[in-house]
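In this supplementary section we document a worked example of the pipeline. Step one takes a protein sequence of length 79 as its only input; no multiple sequence alignment statistics are reported here. Step two produces a three-dimensional model, which step three serialises into structure tokens for compact storage. The input and output of this example are shown verbatim.
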Amino acid sequence: MSEYKQHDRHEHDQYNHMRDLYSQAVAAYKKRKYTRAAELYDRILARFPDADLVLYNQGLTLLKMGRLSEAAASFTRAT
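The serialised model returned by step three reads:
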């Protein structure tokens, strides 16, 4: 496999992994497993720190957990 194809495959695999993490986070939130959702959003944001939708959802999750100042910070970063 050429170096270019390997790189492209690696990027595709990373994208799929992040998409799966996001789906798991949304599912955890819907099940009111806010700690788990927050952990998953943190993992995504470690790789994509400016992902507005993830920051917004993280803010909602933190709000449900009563972590108001952290939620406000997430919402601010999402704008």
